[in-house]
Amino acid sequence: MAFGQEILIALGANLPSEEGTPHETLKAALTSLAREGFAIADVSDFYATPCFPAGFGPDYCNACARLTGPADPHEILAALHRVETQFGRARARRWGSRTLDLDLLAVGETVMPDEATQTLWREISAEQQRENTPERLILPHPRIQDRAFVLVPLCDIAADWRHPILGSTARELCDALPAEARAEVVRM
């Protein structure tokens, strides 16, 4: 397997799996990622965060991890989906409750499929986000700059990661969020 650039992922769960609580599931998922051929370089602390959007289910356990692994983002995403499936992930509803959610945040400085498409998906309204799902992989993840439940743990392991289009670091993106949004993300 050819190894590529730094891979950043977000992990989340708000339903128990066969492994136990959401916190236990995230720990077990990291072990499964290693079996998929990823090297785990760093893992953030684990955080309790309100369900997003509000009212869609129990609160989440969230974390981020820095990995190395395959160079091809599509291969990485396929591996993340295989691990989700191992833990009973069912894609029944967008933003629904789940036993495991693994989001590919970034692969090095890769922008996919191109800057215009990434920008289009990054700037769509919240209503459009609920109704539309990209048909292609978008990198960096188009919602990364909006989500405290991603940026707070990401700052534990990659505060200096720089968004290749926005030019801001993870720390700068996190600091730009409303204080009340950051305060909802509580270290476990």
From TrEMBL:
Keywords in alphabetical order: ATP-binding, Folate biosynthesis, Kinase, Nucleotide-binding, Transferase
Pathway, per record: Cofactor biosynthesis; tetrahydrofolate biosynthesis; 2-amino-4-hydroxy-6-hydroxymethyl-7,8-dihydropteridine diphosphate from 7,8-dihydroneopterin triphosphate: step 4/4
Residue span(s) of domain 7,8-dihydro-6-hydroxymethylpterin-pyrophosphokinase: 94-105
InterPro entries membership: Hppk, Hppk_sf
EC number: 2.7.6.3
Pfam families reported in the protein's UniProt record: HPPK
Alphabetized CDD domains for the sequence: HPPK
Gene3D superfamilies in the record: 7,8-Dihydro-6-hydroxymethylpterin-pyrophosphokinase HPPK
GO MF term set: 2-amino-4-hydroxy-6-hydroxymethyldihydropteridine diphosphokinase activity
Family as reported in the entry's similarity comment: Belongs to the HPPK family.
General function of this protein: Catalyzes the transfer of pyrophosphate from adenosine triphosphate (ATP) to 6-hydroxymethyl-7,8-dihydropterin, an enzymatic step in folate biosynthesis pathway.
Name the record gives this protein: 2-amino-4-hydroxy-6-hydroxymethyldihydropteridine pyrophosphokinase
